[in-house]
Amino acid sequence: MCTRSQSRSRNNSPQREAIPAIVEPLRIEFPFLEDQFQEDPPPESPMADNRTMAQLLQAPTEGYEEAIVIPEITANNFELRHGLLTLVQNKQFFGHDKEDPHAHIRYFNKITLTMRVLNVPSSSIKLMLFPPPSKTTNLRNEITRFQQRFDESFYEAWERFNDLLRACPHHGFSELHQLDTFYNALNVNDQDSLNSAAGGNFLGKMPRECLKIIKSKSKVRQTRAKAVVAKVGTS
C-alpha cells in the first residue's frame, strides 16, 4: 500500500514543461573571402620621364638590334611564291586615315595561310614578307637624310616626313629620333618658329611637348594654305 500511495503521489505531481534547447547557428568563418573581396590598392604609376629632348639625345643608344629576326628554316629549297608576293605588294598598308589596320591584318593572315610548307612555320612566312633588307635600308636612309625642300611649306614637309615613316613601319626609330631628325631638316625660319612656340628653345622641351607644338603649327599652316587657295579661286 505504501508503494502504491507513493506511486500515486508521484503521478499526481505536476510535470514540468521541457525547456526547448536554444541552438545557436553554426558560424563558419571564411577569412580568405574577406581578403579576396577587398579592393586592390591602386597600381603605382611609373615615374614619368620628364627629360628634355636635349637630355634624351645625350643618352647612349648602343646595343639596339633589328626588331625583325626570322628564325632559321630547316626546309630545303624553300622560297616564297611569286603570286604570294604579288598579293602582298598589291594591298599594302600606308597608315592613312581611311585605311582600316584590322582589315589589313585579317587580309594578310588570310593570304599567308594559303602557303603551307613542311617544316616552315607560318610566322616565318609572315616575317619574310616584310621588305627585304636592301629596301629597308633605303627607306631608313630616306628618313635619316630627310630635308625640307626649298619651296616646301612646314605642313608639306611634316606630311612628307610622315609618309616616309608610314612607308617603313618597321624603321625602328624612336619618337625622340624622329622629332630630332625632322627639326634639324627644317629651314632656319621654321626652326626659329618652333623655338619661338617653345618659349625660346625647342629642344629644351620634352618629346611629347615637341610633338604637340609641331602638330599645332602644322594645323595652323594647313588652315592658312587652304584659305589662300580659296581666296585665289574666288578672285
UniProtKB/TrEMBL annotation:
Keyword list, A-Z: Nucleotidyltransferase, RNA-directed DNA polymerase, Transferase
Ranges annotated as biased composition (Low complexity): 1-16
Residue ranges of the region described as Disordered: 1-20
InterPro entries per the UniProt record, alphabetical: Retrotrans_gag_dom (IPR005162)
Listed GO MF terms: RNA-directed DNA polymerase activity
A Pfam family this chain is assigned to: Retrotrans_gag
Protein name per Swiss-Prot or TrEMBL: Reverse transcriptase domain-containing protein
Membrane-spanning segments: none
Superkingdom of source: Eukaryota
Residue intervals of the Retrotransposon gag domain: 130-187
Organism encoding this protein: Tanacetum cinerariifolium (Dalmatian daisy)
